[in-house]
Recover the amino acids of this structure.
């Protein structure tokens, strides 16, 4: 039996999180919300609500109101069965978010994120860790379940072996039908300042502001947060399928396949695939960076409660 299997089910101490209306407004502009994107940009709008993917920022924001110091890297606590990972060789592989209950516009005290190792996979190039993040209110009621997968390049177990085990199964995207045009194509140009805005939601990793780091890593400069691109794609899906109804997005997931640079133009192609669970529509999507020509978000899937077109 692999040492790695010991890690599965490991639970971190729950970490406190909190947010205010200002945090929600800041996140909305970080993911490119436009001035007419009510109800996400104006706290007095009658339907003001968190943009549904907001909780993806909370594992890095935590409960801090100020910037957090990234210069020390994320050491993290040791996890039984896992080798020590090099914080400089971690890439975000994929992210899913499942909305269980609508989020309040401010948390107040007592909320936390419960982190559990849900899966570990080893291949020749490294070790992938799937972490389940459950956002719970002060009485332990879950609001959001997220699975974040990180690829630890160069990491090896002892002895290295092919290994793959996961306790949670997130719905996987169906490949878009071959030769069928997407139902929607949304093209947007990110701002040159997109990363300096998005970081204010809690990811102060210097890769997103100091060009020398990205140059050393072979990206030729600053790269945009993968989760910012994720938010652009989620906006595209929510706006086109549900007229920006904050409660319409039930599930949203994709893989991060290539970086975007601030200022690049990105295009999200969305296919309606048929009925999803609980009266939703299942969509598949893919986001391409038209500046680099690369697919940046792959294997996209979402469950959305669609709004009848006549009501828009
Ligand atoms: C969030 O929690 C921190 C730590 O307890 C506290 O200092 C801060 O005031 C809280 N912020 C809000 C808006 O509740
Ligand atoms: C290992 O898994 C990662 C993440 O899924 C993938 O990008 C990489 O190509 C895989 N490497 C090999 C050698 O299979």
């Amino acid at each position: 039996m692999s040492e790695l299997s010991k890690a599965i089910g490991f639970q971190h101490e729950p970490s406190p999180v909190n947010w205010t209306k200002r945090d929600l407004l800041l996140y909305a502009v970080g993911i490119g919300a436009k001035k007419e994107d009510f109800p996400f940009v104006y706290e007095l709008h009658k339907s003001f609500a968190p943009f549904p993917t907001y909780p993806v920022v909370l594992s890095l924001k935590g409960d801090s109101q100020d910037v957090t110091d990234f210069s020390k890297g994320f050491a993290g606590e040791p996890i039984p069965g896992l080798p020590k990972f090099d914080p400089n060789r971690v890439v975000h592989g994929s992210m899913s978010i499942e909305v269980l209950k609508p989020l309040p516009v401010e948390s107040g005290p007592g909320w936390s994120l419960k982190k559990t190792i849900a899966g570990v996979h080893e291949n020749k190039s490294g070790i992938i860790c799937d972490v389940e993040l459950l956002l719970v209110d002060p009485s332990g009621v879950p609001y959001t379940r997220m699975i974040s997968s990180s690829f630890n390049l160069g990491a090896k177990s002892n002895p290295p072996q092919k290994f793959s085990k996961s306790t949670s199964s997130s719905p996987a995207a169906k490949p878009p039908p071959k030769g069928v045009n997407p139902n929607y194509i949304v093209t947007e140009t990110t701002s040159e300042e997109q990363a300096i805005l998005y970081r204010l939601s809690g990811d102060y990793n210097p890769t997103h502001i100091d060009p020398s780091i990205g140059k050393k890593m072979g990206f030729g400069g600053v790269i945009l947060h993968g989760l910012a691109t994720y938010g652009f794609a989620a906006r595209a899906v929510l706006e086109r399928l549900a007229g920006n109804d904050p409660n319409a997005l039930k599930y949203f997931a994709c893989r991060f396949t290539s970086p975007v640079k601030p200022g690049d133009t990105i295009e999200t192609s969305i296919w309606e695939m048929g009925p999803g669970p609980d009266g939703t529509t299942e969509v598949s999507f893919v986001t391409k960076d038209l500046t680099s020509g690369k697919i940046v978000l792959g294997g996209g899937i979402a469950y959305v409660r669609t709004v009848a077109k006549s009501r828009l």
The mean pLDDT is 93. The radius of gyration is 19 Å. The domain at 3-304 is CATH 3.10.129.10 (Thiol Ester Dehydrase; Chain A). The chain has one domain: 3-304.
